[in-house]
Amino acid sequence: MNNGTTTTQRVTITYTAPPNFLASEHWKQVYAALLSQLPLRNLHWKSSFRPNIRTIQELDVTFVSAETRRDDSHTSQIPQTVLEKPLLNAYIVVCDDADTYKNTVKKQIKDWHSNVTQRKNQEWLIIHVVRPDSKAASQRLFQIKTSVLDKIKADFNVEKRDRCVQLVWSYDHDNPTAWAEFINKVKEGLLCAFDAAITQREEEVRRSEGQRQMPGWNFCTFFILKESLATSFEGMNLHEDALDTYNELEALFFEVLKEKNLSWFGTLITPAPKDDSVPLLSTSKKPYRDLILANTITIFDFRTYLLARQCIILRGMRHLIEVAQKSVAFLSAFGRRLREVEQGSLPKYFVEAWAYASALSVVEQCDAWAKGLEFPKVALANFNALKGELIELARHQLDIVGINVGHLPSRPPFSIALPSRIPRDASNQVVDQSSQKITQADMLKALEDKETFYSLYSKITNRAIELYAAAGRRKFALKMHGSLAALDVHRGRLSSALQTFSSLPAHYAPHGWTSLEAYMLSQALDIHASVGKAKDRDWVYILLDFLKAYIQDLGKDLLLTGPDHVAYVTGLVDALTAAARDAPTEMTHHDHPAFSVEIPSSDAKTVEKRDGAILDVNIHCSLPCPLPIDEVSVTLSGRDGSKIIFVDKVSSLEPGKNALSLFCHSASAGTYSLHSTQVKMSNLTLQWVHSPPPTGKQSRVKRPPVLVRVPRDLHAVDVRLRQPQRIQLGTAPSIVAVFTSGRNEIRSAILKLSAPSGVKFLYKDASASSEDQVLLEHGTDSATLSDIAPGQTILLSMPHTDASAYHAMRVNITVEYTTAAEPDVVRILQLVRYVLTALPVAINVEDFFRGTRLFTRFTLSSTSPQHVRILSTELVSQGPGDDGLKITKCISPSRRLTTITPAQPGRFLFQLDSARGEERDPLHLKIRYRMLREEVEQVMESIIDDVIVESEALALRRPEILDILVQALEKDPAWVSLYEVTGELVIPNVTAGEDDIGQALVQIKKLLDKSRRLEEFPGEWREIIIPVDVPQMHILAAASLRISSNPFSADPSKALDLFAGQPIHAILTIRTSFHWAPMEDSHTKSYRMRFDVEELSKDWLVSGRKRGDFVAVDDETFTTSITLIALHHGELALPKVAVTALPLPGEHRMKAQMLPSCETYQIHGAQTVLVLPRGGRSTFVVSMGDSA
Asked: Domain TRAPPC10/Trs130 C-terminal spans what residues (predicted)?
């Protein structure tokens, strides 16, 4: 070890055998077989001083002849590894004959045994080798009681442990069973010897450490002693224990350093030739152990040696990431320590050359150690990142040297690497007072030639970029790119630098690296100005990105080179304004953080004298100077994608809060969410989108939507939809658009309707009606109204295609109009309305035939939750005269007005009397009705008009008064029941104020509280006309079941008393009529029919012809008789008779036999008969035989 090298000592096993055997071919074969079983695997060491078992996965062992080992008595007194001496001594016996063993071999073993047992901390083993062709082997020597092995064990196993093993070796080296016992004995012997040796050495270390506070204790001597433990563990592949030992030594060194007791060391550093260029992790570059023993090692050499030993052990553990981590930490920390030394004691640039060479050597050493190893993905990324840090550390040394020699300017990013104690001024260079010079070749060349320096600088930087990119460290890689761009600027390569500085911010922005982003953009702006390029679109975007980074970065020391950043930013803003004004095309920039939008109130405000709404907006400007602009606009998004835009013309935005009032000409009432904001500056638009991302895209920050409520302007233009006043089924469908001009005198209004359901509107067939004249122009996709006076209401009837498949139809309305007051302003009003396309009432028809008369009952119910008020129903014939069919309505005398709901239908009965039976013209059911809401609004409008007729001011507030009353009624439906009965309209929860509107509300409420006959109220009524066909029936049968009187009674008209169980004679008659038969079947004179008397098994027993067929002829009667027996007494209903028609023979329709329609009514259906209980007494005389 005098040469200063530290190599791993392998475990040694000595062997001894008779010389003639060692010279034979047999031994060569046995020796080769022994080597094939190495290295040993899976050794388990249990130390008494360690709680856990240590597992040695693999252990290299060296077999050497005992004759070649030197005498242990001449070993060095310097503590060495415990593996320096053999741990196991083996004697190889080749003897199959017991006599030979007794006479010769035994003495040889005894002499060897007496020698090896005297050696401390060494084990011995006797190996009996049995030849494969020997007689003993063929006879299974393990089973021979008097074998040589047994004699050996009896002679030498004096302790409980068995140190003798038999090896029946064969040419098959791979047979594990043949070697199992031998391998186990070897493992046992090695671990036993190692445990004893290491225990003794640890005891020595503890004893020495306990004497630390005593005079004469030497740290260097203790280090050598304890290091022998580490090298011993390392030789046994117990790397964790070896590393722990070195870590403990390092911790002890720091304690000594803290105590400032460095008498066992030399100076901090005594530079030797090539100290700044040799590999950092080499332990053979200096005789470190000799220097330690001599107490002359410097702190620099000691720290270097300790780091190298730790890294070598980490390499054995395959922990190369920790090797790089330790190296980075050591070079950074110890480099700072070396710079604290007086500069004259070190060669000029020694620290930089040493750190540079050491960092590169560690990377090369790690790459060499990593060959053949496979890293997981995450571990490989960390490994590359640490190597990148080492390369960057080497690059920092070039920064320091380059600034000092004048190759680089003393400004960021180069000056970032300068130590804090060295002034950041290239003129203050280090004075060299040492006669030595650095020897690092790359550094020397770089110092002499500037271009060589630049080439080396770029090479090292690109190498760091590659490693950072491989590790996924984008930020660090991009930072290196920025330093290359800064180097291009210094070298005058401005075009290349501008391209780099312009492209890098796009990579920084997604990760929030605002300081780096701002610096790169600042450099790009400066270079852009230096090159003299035009302030084009690219320049504008660079400037906007710079202002973004300027706002977001808290520390602005990296952003601006000038002292006054406000003046600097003001100049940039002025240049931005000029560039936006001169830009040839429109430019848009999204989500710039220099401005933020706040809506202080969630309610917009209407304007009294014109249509539109005002929205108050606060815009916060984070720039330190005013920003000239043209206008600010805020877009609100409503339901189904509708949007309204609020705009305000603004000359500039001041720093801080700017309170603005934006106006929208066309603001439909409703609730909207804040969609986007735009700040217009000539041809540059700054836009912020506030709405959530589309479905499927995730947003980093989930912000609740900002809601804005736009109130309804009761005096603005409005369009409502409703069903037409007269609905007639079978005609072209249409809807009515109610256009209200409000306060406006409208020059022209273009009305467009569209239905998402696909229904088309027929504008060419549209018609308009109004109290005043109005001009209507038809277009292919719109209708245009012109010259509309203020307050005018126009009813526009708009036909459309079939919509019967829908109960209600959604209609999107767009009104584009101009007013006389603002002819240059085109307002576009977008509305969404819903209109019922189905009838407001559902109709169910029931027909009851009675001879020549027909009773038809119509049941009407509401198809919506709204109540429907029915004024009248009328069934009229469409024929040329009314003498063929007489229609009579059954009118209830109680009241005329009927209210129907879904739960409370209305029934209306009509009688149709056909004298001749030839009337078949269709009928029309006419229903006059109005919805309850419409009726109530008409009542309130009538009362309001009566109250405000004398006040012009109140007349202008009429829509507001009506809206207050309607909203009060909508909130509480308790008034409905009283109103429907008495006509009294009690308005709930209306608080009247002291103003004119309050006084008017008091009068209106008093008038509405009065009772009124609503059927006489002069309001508008709607009408529904529904075609109704006269029902037809081939056969009408009238069945009758009559109890016949007693034919033997003196009074035939007297009713017959009926008793339970008594047979009763009954007459069944069926009268048939073809009066209501279809005209096309009038030629049929008769039909085959079948009757069937109902079985009432609980009341009647029917006997006789209770079922049968007969031939029906018009206006004739079929008669038959049956017998009835009442099963119990009481008032019983007679059985019913079912009459059905049979198919017509020979007549088919749709490939099926024709079955005539037939209806039967029971003439006796409401009749009952009284059945008496059977009573009375009967006397019978029974003959008992002749008398004597």
From this structure: 1027-1172
Distance CA 239, CA 231 (A): 9
The 8-class DSSP code of residue 1075 comes to T
**How far apart (Å, rounded) are the C-alpha atoms in residues 54 and 32?**
30
pLDDT at 816: 94
- What does the alpha-carbon distance between residue 535 and residue 528 come to, in Å, rounded to a whole number? 8
508 within 8 A of 475, measured Cβ to Cβ: yes
1032/1074 Cα distance (integer angstroms): 10
- Residue 386 neighbours by CB under 8 Å, 6+ apart: 321, 324, 325, 328
pLDDT, averaged across the chain? 82
Q: Are 1000 and 990 in contact (CB under 8 A)?
A: no
Instruction: Tally Cβ neighbours within 10 Å of residue 205.
Output: 18
| Intervals of the chain under pLDDT 50 | 1-6, 73-74, 135-145, 422-433, 506-513, 554-555, 557-563, 695-699, 1049-1050, 1188
E strands in 851-994? 853-862, 868-877, 885-890, 898-900, 906-914, 923-931
Q: Are 521 and 546 in contact (CB under 8 A)?
A: yes
Cis peptide before 39 (omega within 30 of 0): yes
Q: Read off the tokens for 711.
A: 């109130």
Cα gap 507→106, rounded to integer Å: 84
Q: Where are the beta strands (DSSP E) in 528-586?
A: none
Per-residue pLDDT, 260: 74
Distance of CA 216 to the CA centre of its chain: 71
> What is the b/e burial string over 80-98, where b = at least 16 CB atoms within 10 angstroms of the residue's CB?
bbbbbbbbbbbbbbbbbee
Sign of the torsion angle spanned by Cα atoms 117, 119, 124, 126? negative
Longest dimension (CA), the chain: 185
Separation CA 1116–CA 887 (nearest Å) = 27
Tens of pLDDT, residue by residue over 745-768, are: 999 999 999 998 899 999 999 998
Which two structure tokens, joined as six digits, stand for 1002?
């008091």
Instruction: Tokens for 786, please give them.
Output: 């012109």
Pairing of strands 707-710, 726-728: unpaired
SS3 59: strand
Give residue 369's pLDDT.
Answer: 93
| Residue 147 φ/ψ, nearest 5 degrees | -75, 165
- Please give the pLDDT value at position 526: 58
* Residue with token string 């034979």: 24
> Residue for token digits 């001011």?
953
Q: Which residues of 618-627 are buried (b: 16+ CB within 10 A; e: fewer)?
A: ebebbbebeb
Q: Given the DSSP bridges, would you call strands 1022-1028 and 1152-1153 parallel, antiparallel or unpaired?
A: unpaired
Which residues on adjacent β-strands are paired with residue 126?
A: 91, 164
CA distances to 420, 648, 671, 692, 735 from 706, rounded to whole Å, are 50, 20, 10, 11, 36
Distance CA 658, CA 598 (A): 10
Per the CB < 8 A criterion, the answer to whether 789 and 824 are in contact is no
SS3 1086: strand
Burial of 1006 (0-12, 13-18, 19+ CB in 10 A): exposed
Query: Measured at the alpha carbon of residue 91, what is the angle toward residues 88 and 95, in degrees to the nearest 5?
Result: 155
Q: Please report the pLDDT score of residue 171 as a whole number.
A: 65
Closest CA to 64 of 39, 100, 40, 35: 35
Binning the chain into helix, strand and coil, the percentages to the nearest 5 are 35, 25, 40
